[in-house]
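#structure-requests
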Amino acid sequence: MAFVLVAGGLGERLGFSGIKLALPIDLASEETYLGTYCASILALQRRFGDESTTIPLAIMTSDDTHARTEALLEANNYFGMAKGQVCAFVKSICLACENHITFSHYSPTSRNLVPLFM
C-alpha cells in the first residue's frame, strides 16, 4: 500500500500566497493540509501494521510547487514520517509499478522509463 498526493497547485485562487499543502485547515492549531494527511498515514501504520511497517507517501509536485513542498516537509521534520518514507517528485517523473513501486523518469523522446531508484 502507498499513498500518492497530487500537489501541483498554488493557493492563489483561495487567496493564499503559498502552496495548497501549506494551507492551514484548522485556524486554532494552524495545522496544515499536508500535516493532517501525514498524521492520517501514520495513524494507519499504527493501527494496521507492526513497528517495521511504513506506508510510503509520494507527492507529485509541479515546477512551481516542488521546492516549497520540500521546504515545508523539512521545516516540519516530515510531519513525523521518516524522511525515506516521503518522496516529492516533479510531475515529469512517472510511477511504474511492477512488484513494488519504483520512481522513474519518462523521456518524451523515448517510450522508455529510466529508473531513478528502487
